[in-house]
From TrEMBL:
Protein's organism: Pararhodobacter zhoushanensis
Annotated PANTHER family: GLUTAMATE--TRNA LIGASE, GLUTAMATE--TRNA LIGASE, MITOCHONDRIAL-RELATED
Catalyzed reactions: tRNA(Glu) + L-glutamate + ATP = L-glutamyl-tRNA(Glu) + AMP + diphosphate
Name under which the protein is recorded: Glutamate--tRNA ligase
Compartments, as annotated in UniProt: Cytoplasm
Gene of this entry: gltX
Domain Glutamyl/glutaminyl-tRNA synthetase class Ib catalytic: 5-306
Amino acid sequence: MNSPVVTRFAPSPTGFLHIGGARTALFNWLYARGRGGKFLLRIEDTDRARSTPEATAAILSGLTWLGLDWDGEAISQFERADRHAEVAHQMLAQGHAYKCFATQDEIEAFREAARAEGRSTLYQSPWRDADPATHPDAPYVVRVKAARDGETVIEDSVQGRVVFRNDQLDDMVCLRSDGTPTYMLAVVVDDHDMGVTHIIRGDDHLNNAARQAQVYQAMGWPVPQFAHIPLIHGEDGKKLSKRHGALGIEDYQRMGYPSAAIRNYLARLGWSHGDDEFFSDAQATEWFDLGGIGRAPARLDLKKLDHLTAQHFSVLDDAAVLQELRSYLTATDAAPLSGTQEEALLRAMPQLKDKAKSFGQILERAHFVLTQRPIQPDEKAGKSLDPVSRSILNELTPHLRNASWERERLETIVGDLAAEHGLGLGKIAQPLRAALAGRTVSPSVFDMMVVLGREETLARLQDAATGG
């Protein structure tokens, strides 16, 4: 019987949740959830100088917004330092590690001599096979006694069979001279103790896999299945950096993207399921597998993200859009909506979210229901309310007073009036839009009339016609 799948996401709390880290978390989450397994979270906070509570909070917040729930409590790597040291001493006792008393000056002298002689600068400690009786009473580090001959092979689910010559791997330090564990040891011990079966992470960690395999082998522990995924590049094909703009997942929240669209988009960055571009969380969970991950770096393409966003808005439940809109307002430090405004938004939501590419666009289109009379047109919209247009709006009002308040009927009435004046529908639609919304960008004027209702529509038209 196969053991249950356990994946993990293990960020360092030294800054925001990077878009690449968010994708790694998503891949781990999808793989575990699709197999009834566990998705665990570990905060790798051993770098005390750079790790901050604020960064940890930002990571947890980013994962929560993204909709990636984890099983159990988030684990602090720093708090497990005693367990890591215990394993180092176990390897010492079993002869799989040794005490190295070499100083930094001695190590640097070795490397300088090696460079001068054209030899490998990979440090070879003279203490590797030293008799313990010769050990001085001095500070030491603990090094793993790595194999010197042969090869270390990583059977990677993405990269394939990756072979490392053991003579190119050093005896890595697993315990520093102050007794604190190194990252390379802590990762292995934590993954083993957490029961991680699949390690899905960036391919910048591929070389680490060979060195970490030494600890697994020394302890007689099963080696998890590795899957090293290519990094994300910018649209210019270069590694993501500040020049590419938004790097943190919270940036995308503040830009107004719904989390469902981000999940869909990130899933497609480096992974594919046939030609499918737009899919639901349920489909992604069912379809996701490691075989669908490519080896080439994925490229960010915000036009694709915009396209996916419009598709997701079209299928999202109106109440769900409003719920996430609240989070968007909080993230952008905007004032919350009143209960009356939220009710108005829900009434208008089908029109507001149509082809929308961000929450900002939805709010811009929603201006007509979020504002109150008298409507103050902005400069651009105000230009369409010239005396001729005001006169036509004044003429339109009686036609609407007793009309059945349905979109098709309203469109017919306005169209007939435009024809009487020898005008195209658009010539009346623009001043109508200015009167109802005070903006040049809004939903259809007829949709706005239906949402606003007869009394409010007529009042706004009267205000515009009289300049009130």
